[in-house]
């Protein structure tokens, strides 16, 4: 009997090993075949930090797989519960990333918690065959799940550590990777035109990439819908609060989908209060004059890209906003200052008044090689225009700084407006919504409408430091402007007297 027992035990081990081996192979399926993936991915694998850079296409892939793997392994060795979010592929394998691989989400469950934080990753978009092919070649993780790690670790508002995330660390955290390239608006397959003939170096380049790129699927809005469906067994129907958050294109995705998410949860019978957190997704239209229909990809303004992309993505916008505009003008609903007043779900907007991505659209790079007086004037005007556009927003945190995204940065607690940090402002907003819901008077002295009153970039003393791109040295604003070739004396600034020149700017900031 002992021998039979040993044989049975070995057979059982062999079966488990084979099953794990099959799971590993299924997780590595390539383009199109990945659509058949479904359910959870449970095997041990590297953890990757969800760092600020990992959410932006222009910032690289972000995170350190080796460091994350060591941390996760150490936690497992010590027998501790890890802080990692674990990858789950969507059960509906018809809703996919651009290349047909399975879409999914990362989940960190907190047993007993009735608070849910859903996060939409950012990374701009693609809007034509050429831009999508380039994106697929250069940033494949934003179009395919084939290389996604099995676990991620959150930072900022996605952290499970109370020291870093005082008010949301004990919520269920859901990170939804961006792999639809449609600003989270797409609803299905839209064919692209046949490829144009390639010549010379283009032929050589195309031999080095997957050439089956004549069509992509754009399902960003559907991915959000399916994630919520898959969270029902996890307890989201019993949620007290569900906050849909996102940075950059993910922030715009919050604006576009928050009403639909609230409606879906209501139809499921959930009694959760749904709210949205928009970080650096409140863009303004470009001021540059560009050729009609932007024949060259580099000449496309955000509004032109969205006009073209909406047709490609079969994109949707909130109903009440869509009704304001005639057919073909729905692209205007991608801009928060036009969309906000039509939304009924509570929203909190976080927006740097001198957003680096807004400047990049105008070909202005802080810390780059040069800047004209006209560009400096544009920067100053941008702060005024963003401030004006936020005037009617009830819950807002808008520092007068040069930066882009904040809520997923590990130092997000250090930034303040008028003496109040962003986590504190969010907590005040949370308390106010709870008080209103329970017919109580909101507490006084707990602000959540915070917009810097000083006029210049970096006039808030808590702003992130400016870094010279060539030397990686930290510089003051005046040092940066001088390094970029501006004549400070001609502009009425004293290059020798930083403190005096900035005193009036700082007086109203912070």
From TrEMBL:
One of its GO terms (biological process) is negative regulation of canonical Wnt signaling pathway. Residues 199-208 have a biased composition (Basic and acidic residues). Residues 33-59, 66-80 have a biased composition (Low complexity). Residues 27-80, 187-208 are annotated as: Disordered. The keyword Signal applies. Residues 1-18 form the signal peptide. Keywords: Signal. One of its GO terms (molecular function) is palmitoleyl hydrolase activity. It comes from the Eukaryota. Belongs to the pectinacetylesterase family. Notum subfamily. This is Carboxylesterase notum2. It comes from Parambassis ranga (Indian glassy fish). The lineage of its organism: Eukaryota, Metazoa, Chordata, Craniata, Vertebrata.
